[in-house]
Specification:
Blueprint: E1 5-7, E2 14-16, E3 26-29, E4 32-35, H1 36-47, H2 55-62, H3 64-72
Antiparallel strand pairs: 1-2, 3-4
């Protein structure tokens, strides 16, 4: 059986991608898995990092609902 556990790319904790009740709390972005709360923290810090604007991370924040929906599939 395939491994259904992934590491959060931000905090390093395990994410059980096979558990359907947890699917609303994880997302996949650029082939990495994140807890939703970890992703939001990371994206906000990347957008505001050294007063530089990161368009790709801002777009990810703006489309977070889509990223969560994609992770459920």
């Amino acid at each position: 059986m395939a491994n259904k556990s992934r590491k959060c790319a931000h905090c390093g904790q395990d994410i059980n991608v096979a558990n359907k009740k947890d699917l609303g709390h994880i997302l996949k972005y650029k082939n990495k898995y994140y807890h939703t709360s970890c992703f939001i923290k990371l994206a906000k810090s990347r957008v505001a990092n050294n007063n530089r604007y990161s368009a790709s991370w801002q777009e990810a924040l703006d489309n977070i609902d889509t990223l969560i929906a994609d992770a459920k599939q």
